[in-house]
Design goal:
Layout: H1 2-27, H2 29-64, H3 69-86, H4 90-99, H5 102-115
Helix pairs in contact: 1-2, 2-3, 2-4, 3-4, 3-5
Length: 155
């Protein structure tokens, strides 16, 4: 997996430069620069709109007590799209704009969900009962104060 990541880091700038050259040869320098700026502006507007929408969904899921798994995945995809929009290039802008579209995110989430198994756990507190043989009865009195490591200093 690390090899593919390293290969992608090396190949992405080369592919972006090649696309810049081809588009520049086809439509000229100024229209090419206008396309890059237009994609960045459109991406910024979509990023703002979709980001606020996902934030509202996240708040409503948490307040309703539902697991916000899908909403968190959307937020991560939007964050990745924001990183791609910062990078100059047509390929990264196309992928970023696709990630900002809800139907594409839905399709990508469904494709990833088929390959991932989610295990839900609940947080619980386990206390020892009175019949527990390992229970230290000296620590049950009202004079016992439990401190964390940050609450005291050693001399």
């Amino acid at each position: 997996m690390a090899r593919f990541f390293a290969l992608g880091v090396i190949l992405l700038p080369l592919v972006e430069i090649a696309i810049f050259i081809k588009v520049g040869q086809t439509i000229g320098l100024l229209p090419t620069l206008a396309l890059i700026l237009g994609a960045a502006l459109a991406g910024g507007l979509l990023l703002r709109q979709q980001g606020l929408s996902v934030l509202g969904q996240l708040r409503s899921n948490v307040s309703a007590g539902r697991m916000p798994g899908r909403t968190i995945a959307d937020a991560m995809m939007i964050g990745f799209a924001a990183v791609l929009l910062v990078l100059p290039g047509f390929l990264s802008d196309i992928v970023a704009l696709a990630l900002l579209l809800p139907p594409f995110r839905h399709w990508l989430y469904a494709a990833l969900a088929r390959r991932v198994t989610v295990v839900s756990t609940t947080a619980g507190y386990s206390s020892r009962t009175a019949h527990d043989p390992y229970r230290d009865t000296r620590l049950d009195g009202p004079d016992v104060v439990d401190l964390d490591d940050d609450d005291y200093r050693r001399r």
